[in-house]
């Protein structure tokens, strides 16, 4: 009788990769907030996407991707790119430019998996669960508590909230659209097309609205470097590698850690306040997202 061959232990890099991906994503809010005092939001995004395209183009020579088949597939990638890169990031940056703290922005964006889980039955036909509704209510309650905690939104709070909620709607729509059309896309090709769409839309928007004064200092350089290299390139590479190894579930389970990580990073990098009431709201929101993620795993769409 032959004995089964033991599986080789998973390399340390891949054990740490899911947490690294979530950490990089959470830190993106703080580094975007760092750059916004020195550049207008649309100008920052136009530069980010243009530089990301220049960096990703040579990758295609090595990666040799599978290209989309047919114009409908290309159109689906472009539509998703518009919703994520222009609507989601564009309006989230506007919210922070209006004074919303990076941590608060991250908490509002953390409602995206809750909204997707609650709206997915309209796309997939799956049934709602009590646990999902409990998570939805807790997540919304957590955001209300954070907003009510003084000093978390800065000037023009409700204008900032409106931009953030519209950004949240854009990301939710993009996710539901991806679930609906169901086409698989090479992540590098998908990222490149999305950044091209983002640049094609936001470069003219930035030009028409006025490029504005750009303070080419250390903080803006750090912000741009992080957003282009870490968020747009490294995070995509990690995500692709994790998906190829079958780690999508681990990423999904860790995503609820984005709000607390974003708050802690904003506190350490930007010196943003983290009041006890805001911390309570964050914990309530995280609990809600965790419940919805758990419900989603128990009842996959």
Tag the structure with descriptive keywords:
mainly alpha, 301 residues, disordered N terminus
Order of helices and strands: HHHHHHHHHHHHH
**Fraction of helical residues:** over 70%
Q: Look at the helices and sheets and give the structural class.
A: mainly alpha
Number of strands: 0
General description of the model:
With 301 residues, the chain is an all-alpha fold. The chain has one domain (18-298). The chain contains 13 helices and no strands. The chain is globular.
Please give a quick description of this structure.
The chain has helices at residues 12-35, 41-56, 59-63, 71-97, 102-109, 112-124, 130-148, 157-181, 187-209, 218-244, 248-254, 258-269, 276-298.
Compile the SSE list and pairings.
Layout (H helix, E strand, L loop, with lengths): L11 H24 L5 H16 L2 H5 L7 H27 L4 H8 L2 H13 L5 H19 L8 H25 L5 H23 L8 H27 L3 H7 L3 H12 L6 H23 L3
